[in-house]
Specification:
The chain is α+β, with helices and mostly antiparallel strands and about 110 residues long. It has four helices and three strands.
């Protein structure tokens, strides 16, 4: 799965997949991130509130082929004439700030 995404990804591109909920599946998320790191040098976890999802949060595994990319920094600017109800550059960056328990688990390399 991750190899297919890497093969299809354009230079400078980013992939994002469902990453489960940190409150329910932090050990599984760690395993998935480790597998993704076998293909992608840059892998990060982010999350957003989704009231209809178990525990009210949905996580994302975000990856890039380039090493050292900070995926918490938006790649594009939202046009000024586009009025969005939820997304903003600040919300994008905040999605990568993890609670302490998740950061300890997911940011530590095995």
């Amino acid at each position: 799965f991750y190899q297919s995404m890497s093969d299809a990804l354009a230079p400078g591109g980013v992939v994002c997949t469902q990453g489960e909920c940190q409150w329910l599946h932090v050990d599984f998320i760690k395993e998935v991130m480790e597998r993704a790191r076998e293909i992608f040098p840059t892998v990060q976890y982010a999350y957003s509130t989704v009231p209809s999802y178990p525990s009210g949060q949905l996580g994302f595994i975000v990856a890039a082929k380039e090493a050292g990319v900070d995926l918490s920094v938006p790649r594009r600017v939202v046009p000024a004439d586009m009025s969005l109800r939820y997304y903003s550059s600040a919300m994008h960056s905040a999605a990568f700030v993890l609670p302490a328990f998740a950061a300890r688990k997911l940011l530590a390399r095995s």
